[in-house]
Specification:
Elements (H helix, E strand, L loop, with lengths): L2 E5 L3 E2 L5 E8 L10 E6 L6 E6 L5 E3 L7 E6 L4 E6 L8 E7 L11 E5 L2
Parallel strand pairs: 2-10
Antiparallel strand pairs: 1-3, 3-8, 4-5, 4-9, 5-6, 7-8, 9-10
């Protein structure tokens, strides 16, 4: 079955940085053809799209993170990354990766970031 495994979250001070990773399986053959996205869900909020990247490298960012976050991918590793800089307390959330549009059976456990002093 399809699985996305997120990692890289943790506790960070305001203004700090984190780099999230998402490893996909069994997508070693077709992963490079997929549009991949990062989503997040903050406490008592709905899940929202943060950024996505196409197979051709076309990138989208939500206005709330533009200029601070950077999405990238390494197709040889079936992995997509999210570099998060200048972190603010309001970015505290569980972060997930999934396809664009998302596969409802593909949501993983996510990785938690917690931005606090």
């Amino acid at each position: 079955q399809v699985q996305f495994v997120e990692s890289g979250g943790g506790l960070v001070q305001p203004g700090g940085s984190l780099r999230l990773s998402c490893a996909a399986s069994p997508f070693r053959i077709i992963f490079r053809l997929l549009r991949m996205g990062w989503y997040r869900q903050a406490p008592e909020k709905q899940r929202e799209l943060v950024a996505h990247i196409s197979s051709g490298g076309v990138i989208y960012y939500a206005d709330s993170v533009k200029g601070r976050f950077a999405i990238s991918r390494d197709n040889a590793k079936n992995t997509v990354y999210l570099q998060m800089n200048s972190l603010k307390p309001e970015t505290t959330a569980v972060y997930y990766c999934n396809t664009i549009p998302p596969g409802e059976d593909y949501w993983g456990q996510g990785t938690q970031d917690n931005v606090s002093s």
